[in-house]
Design brief:
2 copies of one chain form a homodimer. Chain A has 9 helices and 9 strands. The first copy, chain A, is an alpha/beta fold. Chain A has 2 domains: 7-88, Arc Repressor Mutant, subunit A, CATH 1.10.10.10; 94-205, NAD(P)-binding Rossmann-like Domain (Rossmann fold), CATH 3.40.50.
């Protein structure tokens, strides 16, 4: 399954609905901020207000982490943060490789917040010989030809794909050969991978579609 | 409504379910590729196969554009492309301003595909005096202090926000003051804007949540 297309499909296959999973980071953000401001208990209503969301939806989404709140009181903030982090696998930092150190790849290397999100890009690769050997955002760029072997030796599970679309399939194949099990695809290419490998698209066009279609309706009215 | 939180909420408010809207670019991609390879008619089944999706979902999603296919034959590819483009507002290119020319902003300026997606970044702004005046990806960087006035004079509707999170609200306020109606938020900040202004988050963390939670389940089994 290369892209997440239908809710029902993934619900059945993976145990939790991906739309709910995708909303968890938003809740985590809010609850962390509330905890930092000294709050001990948080309710769905409060989280929903912060995000202008529906409290029932929030309650349903949080339930997938296995946590249960106390009626009229809500959740212990620290326990709720932990439950979300454990559910997402963000309590253990996963090492990742990045392929493609163009503008986007460089932006991803500089995105400090990934460490809060359970991912650490430990090495960056590029096929451009003028880039290899340079240090970008604290990581030395290695030749792409070494990626497969290093991924295998270092037991890397996550590959971040930021190469040109024309090279995407080739580099994805090299990631899979190196034992990478999850590819975060920042290219516009659709990838063919074995069925045990996860591909998640970080596709700007879907977010832009939501923006422009809503704008079009605003301009009409 | 700063972020899209619940399907039902937006369905009611905007006329079409945003999850369906977000999938349209994927279908558009497939149908464009089929047309380019000489195909005249396309069916939901065919599109679904290409994307490993559910044909019923595809049919339902395409229906929001108002197009109806012919039983057992499908859609005229050219008509389907046009219907999706018109629905998304991608048949008319919208001019946009970009604020913040760091690594991410530079990557966005270099993303040629936006023009296929109905958006053209016509000017880029930064508050850093060492950046102002430089040309990046064919656009001269202008001082951020000029953005509000220029947006208003040029009737710009879309603002792409790629500044540091700490500056996000201030720059968003300046966009709104300049008459910008839709903000594409690449920062991690939550924005307060008037109710007639659309904010769409391009948030990596939600996509990463889907990736890591699925990887966690793969590693368990």
């Amino acid at each position: 399954m290369s892209t997440m297309m239908t809710d029902s499909e993934t619900t059945e296959a993976r145990g939790a609905p991906l739309p709910s999973v995708r909303r968890l980071p938003l809740y985590l953000n809010v609850v962390r901020a509330l905890r930092d401001s000294g709050r001990e208990m948080v309710s769905c209503t409060h989280i929903a207000e912060e995000l202008q969301a529906d409290p029932t939806q929030v309650r349903k989404d949080l339930a997938i982490t296995g946590i249960t709140g106390k009626p009229k009181v809500g959740y212990d903030a620290v326990e709720l943060i932990e439950a979300i982090e454990v559910f997402l696998g963000w309590n253990n930092i996963s090492d990742a490789f990045l392929a493609g150190v163009g503008n986007l790849g460089t932006a991803l290397l500089g995105y400090r917040r990934f460490e809060n999100l359970g991912m650490n890009i430990v090495a960056a690769f590029d096929s451009n010989q003028t880039k290899v050997g340079r240090t970008v955002e604290g990581r030395k760029i290695l030749p792409l030809s070494r990626m497969t072997n290093l991924a295998s030796r270092m037991h890397i599970h996550i590959g971040v794909l930021a190469v040109p679309a024309s090279a995407a399939q080739t580099v994805a194949d090299q990631m899979v050969e190196g034992g990478i099990l999850a590819i975060w695809n920042f290219t516009t290419a659709r990838l063919n991978v074995p069925s045990n490998v996860i591909v998640e698209r970080a596709d700007f066009s879907q977010s832009l579609a939501a923006l422009t279609s809503r704008l079009k309706r605003t301009l009409k009215s």
